[in-house]
Amino acid sequence: MRSSRNAAPLGKINTKRHNTAIFPVLLTPPSLRCCWAAAWVTILSLNERNVRWFSTEGERGMNRTTIFTLAIGALFTGFSVFFAACDSHQSSDNSGWNSLTFDDNNTSTSTDRLSDKLNRKSTDKSNDKSTDKTGKSTDKSNDKSTDSNSGDTGDNDDTNPFDWIGADTAPDTNPVETGVDTGDDPTPHTLRFTAISAGDVHTCGLDEGGKAHCWGSDEDGSEEMYVGQSVPPKDKRFTAIAAGGYHNCGLDEGGKAHCWGSNEDLEGNIIGQSTPPNNVVFTAISAGYRHTCGLDKSRKAHCWGGNWEGQSTPPDDVVFTAIATGYSHTCSLDEVGKAHCWGSNWEGQSTPPDDVVFTAISTSAFHTCGLDEDAKAHCWGGNWEGQSTPPDDVVFTAISAGYRHTCGLDEGGKAHCWGDNYYGQVAPPDMVFTAISAGRLHTCGLDKSRKAHCWGWNFCGQSTPP
Questions:
Q1: 79: closest CA among 45, 30, 113?
Q2: Does the CA dihedral 32-34-37-42 come out positive or negative?
Q3: Adjacent-strand bridge partners of 329
């Protein structure tokens, strides 16, 4: 048996130089810590000057250094196994915190939702107070109050027909797929249109062959259910098209009206805005929020759909030359250019000036605009965003009223817009247009080559024409 004469007495073992061996263990990557710990235990156990498993007499058992060494080794071995397993799992798991993937709609497909939240929190805190101009926004100065020139008292949020997608509502879903039918269409973005009409959260146009194309939302905003306003009939060819709130209507070559999309009111009751009369030959048509109107061959007005404010009850003793439908009011021009309006008049949108002869008219939710004989624009009704204050030094050839904005074309085809620009709907591109249409929070137009261009809110793809 080996002599214990040179061994240090129990309890007085010098372990200072061996305790420093713990630092390589701490600095070693997790996958190698078990190796360091095992090596450390082995070295100390085999060092006869400092460690003895048993005393020569066998009465004392293991000394303190050996117990301490084994305990530390076992501890680090356990941690090494744990961290090695974690490293291996994370390196092989594609849904880890740093391996988020996204589909075509920028939707996170990771199964680890926490990682997405942590990544968002790592951005500068100053961004927390910024607004997102693509649909997610904070209250815009509490919905600008009274316009000093108009005497308006607010934006009538209590009667806002578009609350579900209002400018102060943050959408919590990604944009829906557009409803464009590309089965027999030319290459995307090469369609040439003869007409265009911007609705609430969708847009429609007619190509050179009279086929209808629509893009944007297919859902009814009040019910958030599919109604298909962006899926026009494939077997019809149209000469005119009109986009409404959540429905559309068009006229075929024989003057028959065809409508598609929502046919109900806010409560889901069928009111018939997409059910035109069958025995009428129309020459003009206009789709409003939840009602539709048209002019027959004798220039008599016919309206169907919602009528809670009398918007679908036109005068029957007037011969009209033009008609335009808004949210809950309708306006028309008679043979001498006088404007007639019926329906709601909350902001004076149904009270046109009496001393003006109009050649064109356009209605929206709470305001109406028209062009006089000198091609000067006139607007009346709500004006809290300046939508009823057109420039007075522009000669217009076309005008279109949107929800809180208005746009028109001058003699050179340049677009002029005024009113709410929260989503860029009054910031048209610098080009020559031949047609223009203002929708809910977006605007569209046709250039000289008949290509469609849209600007403004695009949450549902309504500003992305084919």
A1: 30
A2: negative
A3: 343
d(CA 203, CA 180) in angstroms, rounded, equals 10
Amino acid at 420: D
Tell the residue number behind the tokens 């190509």, with chain if given.
207
309 sits in which H/E element: none
| CA dist., res. 187 & res. 189, Å (int) | 6
Instruction: Kindly report the backbone phi and psi dihedral angles of residue 41, in degrees, each rounded to the nearest multiple of 5, phi listed first.
Output: -60, -45
Token readout for 166 is 């209002």
CA distance 37 to 22: 8
Q: Which residue has the tokens 């003006």?
A: 356
Q: How far apart are the first and last CA of the chain?
A: 94
pLDDT tens for the 466 residues of the chain, in order: 433 333 333 333 344 444 444 444 444 544 455 555 555 544 454 444 444 433 333 434 455 555 555 566 566 555 554 444 444 433 333 332 222 222 333 333 333 333 333 343 334 433 443 334 333 333 333 333 333 333 333 344 444 444 433 333 333 333 333 333 333 433 446 799 999 999 999 999 999 999 999 999 998 865 567 899 999 999 999 999 999 999 999 999 999 999 999 999 988 899 999 999 999 999 999 999 999 999 999 999 999 999 999 999 999 999 999 999 999 999 999 999 999 999 999 999 999 999 999 999 999 999 999 999 999 999 999 999 999 999 999 999 999 999 999 999 999 999 999 999 999 999 999 999 999 999 999 999 999 999 999 999 999 999 999 9
Q: Residue 375 burial by CB count (10 A; 0-12/13-18/19+): exposed, middle or buried?
A: middle
Domains (range + CATH), the chain: 1-120 (no CATH), 193-456 (2.130.10.30)
- Evaluate if pTM is beyond 0.70: no
d(CA 425, CA 428) in angstroms, rounded, equals 7
CB 341 within 8 A of CB 313: no
DSSP line for 158-182: GG-TTGGG-TT----SPPPPP----
Indicate left, alpha or beta for 439 from its phi (over 0: left) and psi (-120 to 50: alpha): beta
Q: Which two tokens stand for residue 296?
A: 């027959």
The rounded radius of gyration (Å) of the Cα atoms in the chain is 37
Residue 74 tokens read as 């076992």
Question: Would you list the DSSP string of 139-161?
Answer: -STTT----TTT------GGG-T
- Alpha-carbon distance of 261 to 320, in angstroms, equals 27
